[in-house]
Amino acid sequence: DLTKTEVYALGRYLGVSRDILSARPTDGLWEDNRTDESQIGASYDELEWAMAYEAGDKSRDITDHQKNVLEVYRKFNRANRHKMEPIPVCTIPGELKL
């Protein structure tokens, strides 16, 4: 339940190497070291901004770039919403249990 900003802060607190903390995030699936940002289309800082914007006051004006970041965030949020919702659980009544 930590944002990337919080993960980096925790890493600094724990004394994680500066090389590790400054490395650009990648998923490690490709040999060309493509970054998460290049694959997602927004930085983690921008996505955290979008999360805060969605949760807060939407009456202020935003830039075209921020609108694009919001669209990226909303697209990934919609596509992954099922991962954030609890799975259905079948509760067996006590009288049916052996």
What does this structure look like?
This protein is mainly alpha-helical. The protein has one domain. It has 5 helices and no strands. The protein has helices spanning 4-14, 18-22, 36-40, 44-55, 64-84. α4 (44-55) crosses α5 (64-84).
Q: In angstroms, what separates the terminal alpha carbons?
A: 38 Å
Radius of gyration: 19 Å
Mean of residue pLDDT values:
93
Question: Major β-sheet, in short?
Answer: none
What keyword list fits this structure?
5 helices, single chain, mainly alpha, 98 residues
SSE topology sketch:
Blueprint (H helix, E strand, L loop, with lengths): L3 H11 L3 H5 L13 H5 L3 H12 L8 H21 L14
Short description:
This protein has 98 residues and is an all-alpha fold. The protein contains 5 helices and no strands. The two termini are 38 Å apart.
